Amino acid sequence: MEDKEPIVNLKGVCICRDENVILSNFDLQIEPGGFVYISGPVGSGKSSLLRSLYAEIPISEGQAQVVGFDLRQIKRSRLCLLRRQIGIVFQDFQLLYHLTAEENLDIVLRAISVKRKSDRQKRIAEVLEQVGMGNKGYKRPHELSGGEQQRIAIARALLGHPKLILADEPTGNLDAQTGLEITRLLQRMAAREGAAVLMATHNRQVMEQLPARHISLQTQRGAFGLTSNEDKTKTPEE
């Protein structure tokens, strides 16, 4: 059987902003169905790494393939095709509070040109059921708990059948138990849907109670290195 092609394949990547090195000589491979934590102190580059994977921040050096696209060569006209294959989960949910959960999801499907209302309704029902919110689609965000809002945000990320899910501190605004529930849900999505999931977090309790592959970014001399629990260590360039 052939090896699965990685969803994320970074080799020797350097990410810079305003002449400051954020990540240097960074490697990362995630296969379909893979779940990876990425942690590190504030300013270590967690969010910048995630933003680089959907081409919001450019990659300065190295090789970078994400969902089949070469991020060093991708044209602006193809960014929408890249991003349609990536689901994003934010710490602060980013739901429109004057709309119901279903209406929040419907906006996304309209934006990706799902024109038939019946098709949109079917997909919305599917993803709400996947995240355990099948009976709460009629509610507005202020009528939902923080954990329920994050479940809606995950449902939104699943709408386009993404190959990659990027979760940026998804438990940051949640209590400990709800944070565990949300992380379990993301791990199930990786296993069931075959999507690769990269979750940025500083929540040690979550990582200890729900162990998975873990990459830790550490700050040194104004640049950033990488250490992982796989006994690989990369240090900043001298």
TrEMBL record:
Domain of life per record: Bacteria
Pfam families, sorted: ABC_tran (PF00005)
BP GO terms, sorted: cell division
Tagged with keyword ATP-binding: yes
Record-level GO cellular component terms: plasma membrane
Region (Disordered): 219-238
Keywords for this protein: ATP-binding, Cell cycle, Cell division, Nucleotide-binding
Keyword Plastid: no
Entry-linked PROSITE patterns: ABC_TRANSPORTER_1, ABC_TRANSPORTER_2
InterPro entries to which the protein is assigned, alphabetical: AAA+_ATPase, ABC_transporter-like_ATP-bd, ABC_transporter-like_CS, ABC_transpr_LolD-like, P-loop_NTPase
Boundaries of every ABC transporter domain copy: 8-236
Start-end of Basic and acidic residues biased regions: 229-238
Protein name: Cell division transporter, ATP-binding protein FtsE
Source taxonomy: Bacteria, Pseudomonadati, Bacteroidota, Bacteroidia, Bacteroidales
